[in-house]
Amino acid sequence: MRVRDDGGVGEVTAPPQHLVFAYYITGHGFGHATRALEVVRHLVAAGHDVHVVTAAPEFVFTTEITSPCLHIRKVLLDCGAVQADALTVDRLASLEKYHQTAVVPRESILKTEVEWLNSIKADLVVSDVVPVACRAAADAGIRSVCVTNFSWDFIYAEYVVVAGHHHRSIVWQIAEDYSHCEFLLRLPGYCPMPAFRDVIDVPLVVRRLHKSRSEVRKELGIADDVKVVIFNFGGQPAGWELKKEWLPDGWLCLVCGASNTQELPPNFIKLAKDAYTPDLMAASDCMLGKIGYGTVSEALAYKLPFVFVRRDYFNEEPFLRNMLEHYQCGIEMIRRDLLTGHWKPYLLRAITLQPCYDGPINGGEVAAHILQDTAVGKKYISGKLSGARRLRDAIVLGYQLQRAPGRDVGIPDWYSLSEKETGVRPAHTSHDMNGNAESSFEDFEILHGDMQGLTDTMSFLKSLSGLAGNDPRSPEKQTRERAAASVLFDWEEEIYVARAPGRLDVMGGIADYSGSLVLQMPIREACHVAVQRSDPIKQKQWKHTQARQLANGGAVPVLQIVSFGSELSNRAPTFDMDLSDFMDGDKPISYDKAKEYFSLDPSQKWAAYVAGTIFVLMTELGVRFTDSMSILVSSSVPEGKGVSSSASVEVASMSAIAAAYGLNIAPRELALLCQKVENRVVGAPCGVMDQMTSACGEANKLLAMVCQPAEVKELVTIPTHIRFWGLDSGIRHSVGGTDYGSVRVGTYMGRKMIKCAASDILSESLSSCVPMQSGDPNPEEYEEHGVDLLKTEASMEYLCNLPPHRYEAVYAKDIPEVITGAAFLEKYGDHNDAVTQVDPKRSYCVKAPTRHPIYENFRVEAFKSLLTAAKTDEQLSALGELMYQCHYSYNACGLGSDGTDRLVNLVQEIQHRKTSRGGGPSLFGAKITGGGSGGSVCVIGKNCLRSSEEIFEIQRRYKAATGYLPIVFEGSSPGAGKFVYLKIRRRSA
C-alpha cells in the first residue's frame, strides 16, 4: 500500500507471495455485497485470488471485476433478517429461518466449509458478517477477520425478546462463533458488538464513480436543471403504485428495482436491474429510500440529501440514522406520507440541506491493506482504544440503550471501571422520573388540581420546565424526542396534565374477560400525559406538518404527539395526523379502518394507544374536535413487563383530553372507553381490569372488581401485615401476542360448547316431559331447579358464572382437550367473541382455557375472604397456595414461561427451606400475572425486613441463573380518578 501526499491511502501493492482469501458475505441485502465488492476489487487488483461465498447475484461482482482471480461460490450460510416487505422485518420468521439455514445443518456446514477452505488453501477468511465462517476458519486452522458495522447477535437479541426464550441459543451461538475471529474491521455507523475481542476502525467503504453527473444525465436524457430524486428501496415491492402528482412540478424520479410489468407515470423512469447505483445517486438531487449501510455510506460520500423511511425492527438503523443527521444529510419521512404520496414537502426540504461529511471514503483500500498484511502473518496490536477497552465500551453502550424510562439499569460490576475510563455516564435526562423533584414545579402556576405529594408528578413538571427553557436551535446535542417536544406547546397557554398508574395483577388475570372477580393493585410507576388544545391557525407545528397544511389549502385541526422513551426502543418519537383523517364525511370512520390506519407503520403503531382515545371519544360519545391538539406522553411503566403499560397510557391520555375539552367522564366509563381503544383500535384482545385499575384504583388498596362488564365491588385495604411485590422475568409479554389470543379463543369456544350442551339437555328434558333418570348427575337438583338452571346455562354470558361443581358434574367430560378451528366452526358456527377470530387452520387448546376462569373465580373469591381472616401464618399460607394454583393453571393453558416458572420456584424454595434464624417463612406464594407468556410474577409475603431481603436474594439468584436482574415493583399510588388532573400555566418571567 502506498501513501499519497495528502496522507490518504493509495492502491494495495502485492506482497512477495500470492495469497488466497475466502470472503463470506451474509445473505441479507445488497449493501453487504456492494461494500465487500470494493474490498475484493483491491485485493484482486493486487494479484490475489479471492473466493467470494455469497447468495447475492453474480452481476454485482462480475460487472465490476473481470479477472480470473475472482471466484464466485453460490452458498447461503445465513439468512439475515427476513423482510415481510421493504420496510418491515418479520422477527419470528428471521429467527426460524436462521434456525433452519444455519442451526439445523450446522455440523454438515462446518464439515463442508473446513474441507473447502483446505481445498483452496485459503490464507485468510474474511466474513461480512457470516457467523459460522469464523468457526469454520478456526476448525481449519486459518485466521479470520470480520468487516462490518453490525453483528447478528446484536440484531437478533431484540427478536428473541419478542419471539421467546427458546431462541436464545441462536444469539449465544452467533456470539461464540464471532469470538473465533481475530479482530473486527469496524465501519462507521457501527452498533455495539461486544462479541469481538479486538477492533480496528476503518473509513467508509464506498463504491467509486464511473461517470460524471452530466454524463449520466445525458444518457438518461435529463437536463442539468431538472430536479431528480432516486427511489431506492432495494427492490420495488408489489402494490406500491406510484403517481405523477406525488412529485413536485418539473421533477423526475429514477426508480431502482421496479418489476418488469410495473407501469410508471411519465415523470418516473424505470432503471435497469443492474444499473450502477453510485453513478445514479451522484447524478441526483436527493434520494428517497430506507436506511442501510450501502445507501447511507454512498449518500454521505456523494453529499446526497437522503429522505428516509424508517425500517421496523432492524437495530442497525438508529446508528446509521444518527450519522446521517450528524452530517446534515437526512430527513425522516413518515411511512403514511410515503404510501399516500405526500412527498413534496420532504423533497423540497431535502434540497435545502447542505450535507457536510468530509471524512475519508477509502475504507475498501484500507481494509484490503490490513487483510493482506494479516494474511502474511502481521499482528495488528491493539491500541489503547481497542481490545478489552472497546469491549467494555460496547457493553456499557448496550446497557445504556436498554435503559427503561425513569429507571437506570445497572452496569455489571465487572464493567464498572469502564464508566470512568470512557467518560460514559448514565443519561440522566430532564424527563427522568426518578430525578430530584426539588423546585420541580415552581416554574408553573397550578390553576387546578393537586399533585398529592407525588414525586413523579413533580419530576414530570420539572421536565416540562426544562422543555420550556430549551432552544431547539441550540448547538448542544439533544434527543430527537426532546427537540420535537420543545416546540410542541405554547408555554403562555394552559396545559392539562393527567396521571395513570400501571397495575399489579394480584389475582384474577385472564379470567377477566370471562367475568371473574379480580383483585388488582395500582403500582407506583405511572404514565403522565400533557395536553394542550389550540386554534389550528395558532398551533405551533413541525415543518412537515406545516407543509402538509399548505398543500391541503389551509389550517385544519392537527394532532401532534411526542412520546418520551422512543430512543430506547424501535419506535418513532413523534406522530402527527390531520384529525379529519378520522372522519368519513360527517361521521367517524369505522373501527376497522381506524385499526388499519395505525397498522400501516409498525414504528408508529404506538400512537394508536394515544390517538385512539380521541377516535373512541368521537365514535362513542359523538365528540367533535375542531381545535388542534398537542400531546406529550412520558411513562415510567416499563413495556412488556405484564404491569399494563398500555392501559396507563390510554387512561392518562383520555383523562388529559377529557380535562382539556371539559368532558365529564366518570372513571368507570372512562376505563370502558379505553378498553375499546385497546380492543378495537389497537387490536389487542384484552379484558377491562387493566384500564379499570388504572382509572379507579386507590393507593395501598386492592381493586375488587367483577368483570361483568366492569363493576367495582369494593376497594379492599391491604392488611398491614401483608405485602405484595412484582418481579419482572425479563421475558417480554404482549396481550397482542398469539398465545394470549389463542387461549382467549379456546375459552370462548368452551363457553359456546357448554351453552350448546345445556340447550341440548334442556330440549331433551322438555320434549320428554318426564323426570330425569336416577343415573343422571344430581337428579334432585335437576328435579328442583333443572329447567331454570339449564335455561340460565344455555344463555350464559360469562363463563365465570358457572360454578365449579356444575362444570365438573355436567359439562367437563364433553369439553375436548384440543379442537381445530375448522371443526369448531363446522359444528358450532361461531365462538361469539367480538375481539378475536377463529382461524380454521389452527388447533386450539379448549379444556384448560375453559376450566381456568371457572376455578379462578372461585380462587379469587376465596382469596378476598381470606384477606380479612386472623393474622396468622396459616392465613398467609392459604393465600399463597391460591396464588400457586393460579400459576399452575396458567401453565396448563399454555401461558407460562421459563422465566416466570423460575421466579415462582425460587419463592417456593425460600418459603420451605430450613434457616439458621429459625421462625417461619416470610414469603408465602407467587403467580404469573396479567396475560402470561412472560412478564412479571406477583409475590405475597409478610410486611417485614426479612421478606424484603429475600426478594433481593431472589433477584440475585435469578440473575446468576439467567444473566437478567429482575425489576422489582413495590409500592402503590392512586388511579387517574383520584388524581383527577392538573391545569397549569408557565409563570411569566
Automatic annotation (TrEMBL):
- UniProt keywords, alphabetically: ATP-binding, Nucleotide-binding
GHMP kinase N-terminal domain location is 609-697
Query: Which molecular function term from Gene Ontology is one that the record holds?
Result: ATP binding
Q: Which InterPro entries match?
A: Galk_glycosyltransferase, GalKase_N, GHMP_kinase_C_sf, GHMP_kinase_L-arabinokinase, GHMP_kinase_N_dom, Ribosomal_Su5_D2-typ_SF, Ribsml_uS5_D2-typ_fold_subgr
For this protein, the record's SUPFAM superfamilies field holds: GHMP Kinase, C-terminal domain, Ribosomal protein S5 domain 2-like, UDP-Glycosyltransferase/glycogen phosphorylase
**Residue ranges of domain Galactokinase N-terminal in the record:** 493-533
GO:BP terms for this protein? carbohydrate metabolic process
Q: What is this protein called?
A: L-arabinokinase
Organism for this UniProt entry: Urochloa decumbens
